[in-house]
Amino acid sequence: MAMLHTRPFASVLDQLKSAGLRPTRQRLALAKLLFEGGDRHVTAELLHAEAEAHRIRVSLATVYNTLHQFTAAGLLREVVVEPGRSYFDTNRHDHHHFFNETSGELTDIPGTEVTLARLPAVPEGRRVTRVDVVIRLADEPGAGR
C-alpha cells in the first residue's frame, strides 16, 4: 500500500504561489510561523522574536518587508491601532476588532456583531472595499489586572 507523504511547508508553499509570491526560504519560514497556528494577530517585532526562537535567521527589516508583501498579496490584513503601531491579522474573513489600550491585546469581533447604520457618500470614481472597525478598550480602574 502506498503511503501518502506531504512535503514540509506544502500548505504555505501553495499559499505563496497562489498569491504570486516567490517562495524564498525566508518567506516560507515566516509564512509557516504565521499560518500554521490558526488565526492570530502579530506585530513585526513579535514575529521576529518567534523567528529567532525557532532559529530562523532573518532581520527585523526583512520581517517588516515580508509582512507588507503578504498584506499586499492579500494573505494578511493590516490593522493600524495607532500611528506607527500595526498588527498583522491572518484572519481574512469579515470581522472587526477590540483593541485593549491597557494590554495591547487585539481580539476579533465577528463581522455580524457590528452593524453600521449609514456610511458617508463615497467620492466619485471610488468604491468601498472594506470597513474596518476597531473598538478601543481600557481596563476599569481597580479591575484586578
Write a structural description:
Strands 1-3-2 form a 3-stranded antiparallel beta sheet. Strands 5-4-6 form a 3-stranded mixed beta sheet, with no helix packed on it. The chain contains 4 helices and 6 strands; from the N terminus they run ααβααβββββ. Strand 2 and strand 3 form a beta hairpin. The protein has helices spanning 10-18, 25-35, 44-53, 60-72; strands at 41-42, 77-82, 85-89, 95-100, 106-110, 134-137. It is α+β, with helices and mostly antiparallel strands. The chain has a single domain (22-137), classed as Winged helix-like DNA-binding domain superfamily/Winged helix DNA-binding domain (Arc Repressor Mutant, subunit A), CATH 1.10.10. The N and C termini lie far apart (57 Å).
Measured between the Cα atoms of the first and last residue, the distance is 57 Å
Count of alpha/pi helices: 4
Category from helices, strands and their pairing: alpha+beta
CATH architecture: Orthogonal Bundle
Instruction: Please state the CA-atom Rg, rounded to the nearest Å.
Output: 18 Å
Count the beta strands: 6
CATH class: Mainly Alpha
Number of domains: 1
Please report which band the strand proportion falls in: under 5%, 5-15%, 15-25%, 25-35%, 35-45% or over 45%. Answer: 15-25%
What percentage of residues falls in helices of 4 or more residues? 25-40%
Instruction: Find the CATH superfamily.
Output: Winged helix-like DNA-binding domain superfamily/Winged helix DNA-binding domain
Outline the biggest β-sheet.
Answer: 3 strands, antiparallel
SSE order: HHEHHEEEEE
So what's the overall shape? globular
Regions with little confidence, pLDDT below 50 for 5+ residues: 1-6
For the biggest β-sheet, the strand order reads 1-3-2
Which fold name corresponds to the CATH topology? Arc Repressor Mutant, subunit A
Average of pLDDT: 87
